[in-house]
Amino acid sequence: MQAEELWSTALFNRFLAGPLDAFWNALGVVHDPAHPWENWLTMELLVVALIFVLFAVLRSQLSVETPGKLQLTFEALYKFLSGQVHDALEHGSNKYLPFIGTLFIFILFMNLIGIIPGFESPTMSPAVPCGIAVSVFLYYNYMGVREQGVGKYLAHFAGPVWYLAWLMIPIEIISHLSRPLSLTVRLFGNMFAGEKVTLTFLGLTYLVVPVIFMGLHVFVAFLQAFIFMLLSTIYIAGAVAHEEH
Amino acid sequence: MKRKLIYAGAALMTMASPIFAQTPGGGGLTGTLNLPAAYLALGISAGLCGLGQGKATAAACEAMARNPGAAAGIRFSLLLGLALIESLTLYALIVTFIAK
């Protein structure tokens, strides 16, 4: 899908084409040597910079006696995320909250930035949700191994009873491998389809109807970020849960 | 009656073998019937997704009406279930993008 170049991508391609060209060549990635920067890459970096700035501002304004509106908003967000994590992992681990909170805020900002004209959601390209899903996969497996030890973590693939292990192990492996795939496709499909539907209706009826679909897209953006975070929490909980008797 | 239905289904599937006589356009996801087949799959999966989500929403509404105090938890389960059902239709949508 040859998308048009955004202003940010054109800027990056003009000044920083060399380093990324060398990087792609080192990894063996097929690319256009004149335009190594893609829309999703520059937009993702923009979102990262935006989040840094936002949290730097928040951090400088933190106050116990007189919390400002920004602080109250993020306290509510923190309480919501912490509630989700504590619901899923009963032994109330704040260990995983940084990763899960970052997932939610990052994906939410990436989804929402596409609404602004002149910006494009990085999650509209399949590369970005794939990267996040793979990192979630690696993270929950690493956390499972760190929590339970390699032997015990692999043993729980065999299921509850030993004589069903021959059946359970292939099923468990396939289901674990399908998790990053389903996370990727869900996020990518929702965001891509949301934009395409808005554009289609913009072509059909010029006035009020595309706004409704854009509103639906905003709702879906929140919902998909939440669902991604929730499923990641459930996968982490499944990996680190100790068998309760 | 059930056995008749099973035999009818098996007969239909064997009679569909002429479909293999399509001109192979290069294997994989490029053939003459790939795009219509993908669209048909999308239509069927969207319809069944609608049925599933309708059932989930109906159960959630009834549960919230019976027990308004638990509405938050029910709403949460409803959204989770709806998103998971929706993702199944999205897989079919992705196939329509991949098929030529």
What is the first-to-last residue Cα distance of chain A?
53 Å
Helix content of chain B: over 70%
Helices and strands of chain B, in order, run as HHH
Q: Identify low-pLDDT runs of chain B.
A: none
Description:
The complex is a heterodimer of chains A (about 240) and B (about 100). With about 240 residues, chain A is an all-alpha fold. Chain A has two domains: about 10-45, no CATH class; about 60-240, no CATH class. Chain A contains nine helices and no strands. Chain A has helices at about 5-15, 15-25, 40-60, 70-90, 95-110, 125-150, 150-155, 165-205, 210-240. In chain A, helix 5 (about 95-110) runs antiparallel to helix 9. Chain A is globular. The relative contact order of chain A is 0.11. With about 100 residues, chain B is mostly helical. Chain B has one domain: F1F0 ATP synthase subunit C (F1FO ATP Synthase), CATH 1.20.20. In chain B, helix 2 (about 35-65) packs antiparallel against helix 3 (about 70-100). The radius of gyration of chain B is 20 Å and the shape is flat. The termini of chain B are far apart. The mean pLDDT of chain B is about 80. Classes of the chains: A mainly alpha (about 240), B mainly alpha (about 100).
